[in-house]
Design a protein that fits this description.
five-stranded mixed sheet; 17% strand; 4 helices; alpha/beta; 159 residues
Length: 159
């Protein structure tokens, strides 16, 4: 009698989103940790990233807050997960898929479009009604970049 393969293995979507979640755990941001994973058409990981300071800057020398005077917040200093993944990529991104834990902002959408990525798979869209999010979706739609929410993401670890 031949043994059959197991049926409860991870889908590609869950696998790559798992890599994005794992990448987000590298973020030092106390409020929002975002991870990204870029995959080519052969289901090979070609870039990963998370939100953090530019290379060479000390995480202890810059603020991590999200309220107060602009220069005393994280916003002028932190590089988002998506541009980090794009900059860390090891090959051209034409027709690639981006897995990201938080829907991309308008600034990231520009870079995603410019890089050639054609699909975004995301977990959270917590800023859905914000003007930045609306601008992001407007640009992505105009550039024909598909995006979809990964529903019911749970992973069961077996011993």
């Amino acid at each position: 009698m031949q043994t059959k393969k197991r049926k409860d293995y991870l889908s590609w979507d869950k696998y790559f989103m798992g890599v994005a979640i794992l990448s987000s755990m590298r973020s030092k941001d106390p409020n929002t940790q975002v991870g990204a994973c870029i995959v080519n058409q052969k289901n090979r990981i070609i870039g990963i990233g998370y939100n953090g300071l530019p290379v060479g800057l000390s995480d202890d020398d810059f603020p991590w807050g999200n309220e107060g005077e602009f220069l005393e917040t994280k916003y002028p200093y932190v590089v988002h997960a998506e541009p980090n993944a794009i900059l860390n990529s090891i090959e051209k991104l034409d027709n690639a898929t981006l897995y990201v834990t938080l829907f991309p902002c308008n600034e990231c959408a520009k870079l995603i479009i410019q890089s050639g990525i054609k699909e975004i798979v995301y977990l959270s869209d917590k800023y859905n009604d914000s003007e930045l999010n609306i601008a992001s979706k407007r640009m992505l739609d105009a550039a024909k970049v598909k995006y979809r929410k990964l529903e019911e993401f749970t992973v069961e670890v077996k011993e």
